[in-house]
Amino acid sequence: MSSENVSEVPAGGVPDGGVPAGGVQHETPELPLKPGPGTKTKPVVSRRAFKKRTKKVIAHGAWKLVYADFVTVLMAFFIVVWVMLFDNISKRERIDTSCIEPVANELKELIAGDAGLQSGKAPFDIDYSTDGLRIILKDAGEPLFQRGGTVLSDFAKKQFQKIAVVANKCPTHKLKIEGYTDAEPYGGGGTVGYSNWELSAERANSARRELILEKVPTERISQVIGYGDSVPSMPQDPKNPLNRRISITIIPPKIGGQVKMGGMSPV
Q1: How many helices (H) and strands (E) does the chain have?
Q2: Residues 84 and 142 in one domain
């Protein structure tokens, strides 16, 4: 064999071609070069820069739905309360005003026809209470009793005649008589002995006796009460003489269910 065809093998056993004898050549990957001065490099773009931003949409009309719900709940509450009150009122006993309404009108006519009552302060108040027709005789211009006394004056007796006439127009109706005084202490302000409590009760009893003298049956009078100065008609001026008064209530019989009130119902 000619020596020209045999290549020399270096001492390391690797031919000049870089491939070991009987082996496979492996390529070494190229390492990235560090850019030197003046070398242009491509900018590194972050993927976050391409993230699509979504704009938040604010629902400006959302409060309207909350407000509508609130109004609905409030309306439902008021309806429930109204139904409960209406049910309670409908179950209350009603009073028959078919008699006391004409009586009130007739008494007003008697008062208007009395010339002596037109010159001064009107001594009568006529209104409706929860019990019925209430007639209040006040110590206005003319006194009803002598000061500190329980005997009716002549003026008061004339007024009780009017009251008895109209009260007898409703013979089935009970009467309640109440006496009131002003806050002026009786007898120098004693608290243990005779006081405005006894005075008001005795004045109410004097009114009862006067009505009986005017042909009002005794059995029709159901109550005689003295309140003293505890219920003034003028709380801002408790010593005013107008607080001295006698109240007579004509009480109609109570009936169940709805009745025709004739355009005027008790308050």
Answers
A1: 5, 7
A2: no
What residues have CB less than 8 Å from 53, skipping those under 6 apart?
Answer: none
Q: pTM score, two decimals?
A: 0.62
Could you tell me whether strands 133-138 and 245-251 are parallel, antiparallel, or unpaired per DSSP bridges?
antiparallel
For residue 179, being part of any structural domain is answered with: yes
pLDDT digits over 217-263, tens only?
999 999 999 999 999 999 999 999 999 999 999 999 876 543 333 33
> Of 159, 123, 115, nearest to 142 (Cα)?
123
Candidate from 48-62, 140-154, 201-215, 240-254 with smallest mean pLDDT: 48-62
Q: What is the pLDDT of residues 198-219, one digit of tens each?
A: 999 999 999 999 999 999 999 9
- Between CA 52 and CA 66 the distance in angstroms is 33
Are 100 and 209 in a shared domain? yes
Beta strands in the chain (DSSP E): 94-95, 124-128, 133-138, 174-180, 221-226, 245-251, 254-255
Establish if 2 belongs to a structural domain: no
Does 181 lie in the same domain as 69? no
Domain that holds residue 154: 95-255
Q: For residue 171, which of 253, 77, 86, 51 has the smallest C-alpha distance? A: 253
